[in-house]
Queue: 2 jobs
Job 1
Amino acid sequence: MKFATTALAGMATFLALTSPAFAKNKFPYCTGSTYEVSNKNCAKFDFKDVHTKCVETSNCTTFYDITNLPKQSINAHTTKMAELITNVFENGNTKMGYAYVEALGDGRGYTCGYIGFTTGTNDALAVINQYTKRKPKNALSKYVPELERISKLKFCDTKRNNTSGLSGFPKAWSTTACKDPVFVQTQLDVGNAMYLEPALQYAKSVNVTSNLGKAIFYDTIINHGWQYVEPLINLPRILQLTGPHRKHESEKSYLGRFLQTRRQLMCCYPDDVWPPAADRVADLQRLLQNWKRNKDLKHPVTLKIYGVTVKGTENMSYDTAECKHEPKGWKLPAAKMLPVPDTCPNKLFEATQ
Ligand SMILES: *[C@@H]1O[C@H](CO)[C@@H](O)[C@H](O)[C@H]1NC(C)=O
Ligand SMILES: *[C@@H]1O[C@H](CO)[C@@H](O)[C@H](O)[C@H]1NC(C)=O
Ligand SMILES: *[C@@H]1O[C@H](CO)[C@@H](O)[C@H](O)[C@H]1NC(C)=O
Ligand SMILES: *[C@@H]1O[C@H](CO)[C@@H](O)[C@H](O)[C@H]1NC(C)=O
Ligand SMILES: *[C@@H]1O[C@H](CO)[C@@H](O)[C@H](O)[C@H]1NC(C)=O
C-alpha cells in the first residue's frame, strides 16, 4: 500500500503550523457531524495505543485464514475498472505504476509497482520469487538473499526498513518493469492473488455482489489490507464495525454504511497520512449515490475530487508514466492464477523451488 497523499499531508501540516486559519480545514473530507474528529465518531475505533502497538506474526502468514469464506467471480471489464479506479487514488491517474519505486520513509523500505509492494513487508519478495520462477535469469533475483534476510526479521522490527543492502534495486525494478511484460504480468498475478481474490471473498461474505461493490471492496483491501498484524485498520475491522448486512437491506444501503465507517476510520486515525486520504472514500460515495448508473460499472465513472474519468478502455499494459519507450511488440502474457497467501505453508510466499 502506498499513499500518493503523503507529500500533501506534510504540506498540510506545514500550513497548519504557519497559518492557524488552515488548521480547521486541514482535512476537508473530515468535517461535518459525521466525519469530524469527535468522541461520537471515533470512540469505536479505540485508536489510543496506535503508535505503540505492533502485532507479531504467529504463523507462516501475516494474513487471516479465509479459506472458509465463499468465493465469487469478477468479469474482465470490472477487474479493469476496479484496478483503474484504485490506481487513480494511489497514483493520481490511469497510468499503471508498474515501474514506480520510492523510499517513502514509512518504515517499509522501498515501495514498488502498481499497488505498492514493499521490501519491508515481504510482498516485493513474493513478486520477485514468482517472477524468477517464470524467468530464472533476471536483474532482480540477486536481491533475493537480502530480501529473505529482511523477511526473517520480526514483523515489528524497525530494521525491516533497511535498504542499505539493496543498492541498485530501484533501477533494477523499474528497468525490468519497462522492458519485460512477464514482470508486469507477474505483478498483476500477485496483486490478484493477494488482494483481488480476497476482496471478492470478503464482499461475498456480506452479500456484496454488484460490480461497483466489488470495486469498492478492492479499493478498501488495497488501502487497508487484510493482515492480522494490522488489526486496527484492516478490512475485517471495517466489516465488523459496519455490522451485518441486514436481512432486507439493499446492497446500496449496506455499502453506504460500509463506506461511512471506512471514512470515519480514516478521519479518526491520529496521524497526518490517513485523514487526507478520506477524499478517495468521498469519491466512492459519490459513485454509490448514482447507484442505477454505476452499479454495473458499465459506463465511465468520474472521480470528481481526483479530477479523473475512468472509461474502461484505457490500455493498462504499459507504465507510460515511468517508462520512456515502449518496446516494439509489447504484449502481456496470459494471466496466471496464483494461490491466496493465507495458509501454512504459504504457497504464494514460498521460495523458488
Ligand atoms: C529505519 O528506521 C529507523 C528507526 O525508526 C531509523 O532510525 C532509520 O533512519 C530508518 N532507516 C531507513 C533507511 O529508512
Ligand atoms: C542493514 O542491512 C545491511 C545489509 O544487509 C547490514 O549490513 C546492516 O547491518 C543493516 N543495518 C541494520 C541497522 O540492521
Ligand atoms: C443478498 O442480497 C440480495 C439482493 O441485495 C437479496 O435478494 C438476498 O436475499 C440476499 N441474501 C442474503 C443471504 O442475505
Ligand atoms: C495495449 O497496447 C499494447 C501495445 O502497446 C497492445 O499490444 C495491446 O493489444 C493493447 N491492449 C488493449 C486492450 O488495447
Ligand atoms: C495465523 O494466525 C492468525 C492470528 O492468530 C490467524 O488469524 C490465522 O488464521 C492463522 N493462519 C493460519 C493459516 O494458521
Job 2
Amino acid sequence: MTARPLICENNNTMQTKTSLFSLTLALGIAVSAATITESAAKSTMTATKPAAQVAHGKALVGGNGCANCHGAKLAGRKGFAPSLLQTGVLKEYNAATFARVMNTGETNDGGYVHKPMPVYHLKNADGTAIYAYLKTLK
Ligand code: HEC
C-alpha cells in the first residue's frame, strides 16, 4: 500500500506545477496586453496630435519634392502645376479625398491625376498629414 500515496503525491506536485505555470502564463498575457494597449494609445496620440501631424506632413512635402513642381511656396507654377494652397486645389479637397489622391491618384471629381503628377501610394495617415500641413500655409 505504499505505492498509492506516492502516486497521489506525484499528482499533487504536478498539479501545483501546472497551476503555477498557468498563473505565470496568465500574468505574462496580462502584462503584454497592458503593453500593447499602452503603445496603441501612444501611436493614436501621435497620429492625432496636430503639431506632430503638421511636422510629419511638412517632412513628406519636403522629402517628395512637391515644391519642385508646385513652386517654392507650393503656390503653383503657371502653365505647369496648380497651387496646393487653400486658394488653389486644397479648397476642392477634404482630408479624406486628399488622402485618396495621394494614395491612388484619384482626384476629388472622380478623375485621375495627369503626368507629371506622380501617384504616390501614400498611406492614409501620410496623406492626411500633408493635408494638415497644407492647411497651415497661407
Ligand atoms: C513632377 C512634378 C510634380 C510633383 C513632384 C508633384 N506634383 Fe502634384 N501635380 C503636378 C501637376 C503637373 C499637376 C496637375 C495635373 C493634374 O492635376 O492632373 C499636379 C496636381 C496635383 C494635385 C491636384 C490634383 C487635381 O487635379 O485635383 C494635388 C493635390 C497635388 N498635385 C499634390 C501634390 C503633392 C502633395 C506633391 C508632393 C507629395 C506633389 N503634388 C508633387 C506635378 C507634380
